[in-house]
Design goal:
The structure is a single chain. By secondary structure, the protein is mainly alpha-helical. It has one domain (8-164). Helix content is 53%, strand content 4%. It has helices spanning 8-14, 23-42, 44-53, 66-93, 114-141, 172-177, 179-182, and strands spanning 94-97, 100-103. A hairpin with a 2-residue loop joins β1 and β2 (100-103). The longest helix has 28 residues, at 66-93. 21% of the residues are buried. Residues 174-193 have low confidence and may be disordered.
Length: 193
């Protein structure tokens, strides 16, 4: 089994996921967010270094350096947890069963609407991107402690993301960069620098 940054104890202490949610249901989502999001933020080399320094069994000794422990505890874990909260929302609402995808409901509760769920997911993704920004800024500020961050080359390695925020809006700076392809005028309309 792959080593996970988020343990069951950490999940129960720091997340809003109820204790009665089976960790075996959550663990694959933790692994997915860790491999897709955290590896994308750290890059393959730094990610693999952190994984190699984790204990092999729950509660075992780890070989994390002081710098890597600060990185993991203060930046990676909160970021991973926020991405987990965004990604776990759908599997907690719906379940893949032999009869198809089923919506979960309890005796004393009712499921929220998919529109409300989208609002919650977007909120968690915004928080995750904020944690990601803090993480990237921390690594850049302390680059001497994390040389693996800048050594990702070759096929099969993931280069770290340099910016945390995604935006579906095409901002003016992007338009200005492509102005020669769109118009001879360096500005759109009456805009001035």
């Amino acid at each position: 089994m792959a080593k996970l940054f988020i343990s069951q104890v950490y999940l129960q202490q720091y997340s809003t996921i109820n204790d009665n949610v089976d960790y075996d249901l959550v663990a694959p989502i933790i692994r997915m967010t860790q491999e897709l999001e955290i590896r994308g933020i750290l890059g393959t080399n730094l990610y693999n270094l952190l994984i190699s320094q984790l204990p092999t069994v729950q509660g075992g000794a780890n070989s994390l350096t002081v710098a890597n422990k600060i990185l993991l505890d203060d930046y990676v874990l909160p970021c991973n947890l926020a991405y987990l909260m965004a990604d776990i929302s759908l599997p907690l609402k719906f379940r893949y069963m032999a009869k198809g995808i089923q919506e979960r409901s309890g005796e004393n509760s009712s499921p929220i609407s998919t529109t409300d769920l989208k609002y919650i997911i977007d909120g968690w993704k915004n928080k995750a991107e904020s944690y990601e920004d803090l993480l990237i800024r921390f690594i850049k500020q302390n680059y001497q402690d994390y040389p693996e961050y800048n050594t990702n080359t070759g096929i099969g390695t993931v280069r770290p993301r340099r910016s945390a925020f995604t935006s579906p809006i095409w901002t003016r700076s992007r338009l200005k960069d492509t102005r020669n392809n769109i118009s001879e005028n360096p500005y759109w309309g009456d805009e001035r620098p």
